Amino acid sequence: MTKPPRRPRSKPLLRDEPAPLQSRPIRKRNKAQPALSLDPMPRRVEPALAKLLQRPPSGDHWSWEIKWDGYRIAIHAEPGGIRILTRGGYDWTDRFPGIEAAARALGPASMIIDGEGVVLDEQGRSDFNALQKALGAVGRRSGNLTAGNAICMAFDLLYLDGHDLREEPYRTRRHLLEETLRGFEGAIRLSEEIDADPAVLLDHACTLGLEGIVGKNRYSRYRSGRSGDWVKLKCVQSGSFLIVGYEPSVQAWGGFRALLLGAYKGRDLVYVGSVGTGFKEREAIRLRTMMNKLPWRRKAPPVVYEGTRRAVWVQPTLIAEIDLRQWTPDMMLRHASYKGLRERQDNADVFRLETGEEP
Known about the structure:
Elements: E1 51-52, E2 62-66, E3 71-78, E4 81-86, H1 97-105, E5 111-118, H2 128-135, E6 151-160, E7 163-164, H3 170-181, E8 188-190, H4 198-207, E9 212-217, E10 230-234, E11 237-248, E12 256-265, E13 268-275, H5 281-292, E14 312-313, E15 319-324, E16 326-327, E17 333-334, E18 337-342
Parallel strand pairs: 1-10, 6-8
Antiparallel strand pairs: 2-9, 3-4, 3-5, 5-6, 6-7, 9-10, 11-12, 11-14, 11-15, 12-13, 15-18, 16-17
């Protein structure tokens, strides 16, 4: 015997009834039921810094990538908009319009991306001088404060959609960053991990004219400061030094033969030598113009100075990025070359003799 057709439990959606369709009433959430916890987005995160080493650490728990030469930035994609913060905590969103647009294009997700703002040359290498030229590194004096061609080489993800990731191991954060940027085309790019012996990788990096390499402990959480979880190996030593004066010259570009430099030793600013190479004509003239506008200290230098050079002393305000091959036994720069100016806002980056690197 054939069974009669089963009567539907709910009425069909299309029906000839005058009454409007109504859904079931929404039940109030049971307060005893646990809710998914969301972490507030940090207003700012003090960046993790790489410790300078002379040789790679042992072990297979390190991941390696290229060291980029630019400005450390953190991209905060928030419901209220995009903020791009420098290492010192300054808001430079308006200086990186391309990176800001890329952060908006990533989608509605809230996130904090840790990376380096750079300008690449034709060979794909980060060019600090080109970045400085694009930014107008002397501040508002240059009238050019944006780097429209700058990109962010992203290497860490600290926050994503309501979840603070700083307690997660680096390999987890890295995986989430790769997924976030997968297939994305814009001014935020992934700083690629390179599976190679670090000694061989450093050798290749130096041959290609790169600044060096960075290693990160795959199992480490994100710790602000120089904890040793991140390390760096450089092809050429470099650092940021305060300009304390210059040696005048009527023959050299810009009217000076060399810049006189200072670094910190404890709380004191001390003289560490001079730099007289690496200047192009336009940059030398620009530097002299800037120094002419600084407050002068004609009689007493801002550092203890026992040399015999004819020097013009200036208020230590401008910060020069310097390449150097080595130090003399009495801690003076040897074979130094000028790279460009750092923003005066980044005074925290001035070289410290106690640690052998920037703080």
